[in-house]
Amino acid sequence: MSGLARFSLNQETIKQWSLPELARGCEGAGVPGVGLWRTPVQEYGVERAARLVRDAGLAVTSLCRGGFLTAIDPATRAVALDDNRAAVDEAATLGTDTLVLVSGGLPDGSRDLPGARERIADALGELAPYAAERGVRLAIEPLHPMYASDRCVVSTLAQALDLAERFPPDRVGVVVDTYHVWWDDTVAAQIERAGRGGRIAAFQLADWITPLPEGVLLGRGRLGDGCVDLRWFRERVDAAGYDGPVEVEIFNPGLWARDGAEVLAEVTGRYCLHVL
Amino acid sequence: MSGLARFSLNQETIKQWSLPELARGCEGAGVPGVGLWRTPVQEYGVERAARLVRDAGLAVTSLCRGGFLTAIDPATRAVALDDNRAAVDEAATLGTDTLVLVSGGLPDGSRDLPGARERIADALGELAPYAAERGVRLAIEPLHPMYASDRCVVSTLAQALDLAERFPPDRVGVVVDTYHVWWDDTVAAQIERAGRGGRIAAFQLADWITPLPEGVLLGRGRLGDGCVDLRWFRERVDAAGYDGPVEVEIFNPGLWARDGAEVLAEVTGRYCLHVL
Which of A160, B40, B73, B264 is 20 to 30 A off residue A149, Cα-Cα? Predict the structure, then answer.
């Protein structure tokens, strides 16, 4: 079995590539899977993108992303639910069973974290049956606490599991992304809990480096450049019974400025070195 | 009792003020306490600073800061311990019983968070008796997880308490700083735990605003500008039995560019509005 058997390239890592470049590049490099994002897929055409990756022999390991489910205003909430149903449809068309959810931050002027988390649970209750009918599982991604106010009030794996466990495991799972959870001293126990319940829907990798850039969105480190013990995490999710894709998702303008094929070769090399 | 009876101004909030300006400004505004920082105190002279604030009738509610106790190299570790003993001496001279500790990040090239946390515990074991002899309690401050790699591997109140509880409560306590712990869904329970054990050594306030600036150090929000329910926190620490100072500590260049007296008036006004 190739060292890349479980490897998946999240499209944002090499976002300078068009979808055809991505499909060709991955096929040529022996990469078996890709994680896709809605906007480039929509721009290219969902059916057409599905055909493209299928023809290249690529599995779509996840679609990023649904979520943003914390609105209080009923009209805004209805729009968000509609958009999430559309994301489920796109995931089904692409042939992936995993829709990643970034749950949403605090609405403007609100300071009510528990209320926001409860509205996410309500929305999951509406969306999960719709997704299940289409063979798609909702994957709650806890984001680093530095995003708690504006992107995601679900900040730890424990919180994500508290939400997911209100639903059957084949309907709602969680994402383990090293960038978001590496600092948490309860993470080993929570990975075990997630594995035991069959809740690990996706495993994503990026390294943590400082200083963080303004806005803290685009400062993820290349595998091995930072302080995350990536192999330790891979061993933990494996030990928890997860045998699915290992997706590398790095948002870093330094990578986007380079030749895509060169970046992919570097990413896969570092993956073998630091993760396997 | 004045609304400012428990109010304390952390010196960094108005760092454009010299120590004499701080003493005069606080005395004039009816502010009963100040939190001081080692560098400006050392520059002014520790004994002289102690006299200055005493003559102005000000209590020194805390000294920031000791810590940085995670070094592996024995020589670096010895220097850090010496420096912390000096910080204890300075705290004693200033007449405060609270030395705030920022525990330190991962040493260069290390990915071992549990190891770093264990070295902090070892260092506390060496420092706590020295501090106790001088009437000073070590106050472990959990810092927001975005500082976990480079400043403080103690990221939650639960972790801080796990460390503190290895020692008697009059020797090692914790700091509850809203900026660092506001996002944590376990924080109410941990504040209760801290109060029950007599561990709350300091309570500090700043609000959380976004976008975060590059380096994420100087983006704290003025009270009321962000998404932290400050009054909820004050009520929680009160209910946990804490009746000590409430220290406002905001690192924000926008405040530093303004007239100090004007900033202090604004800070105390917002304190009454959003905290009491």
Answer: B264
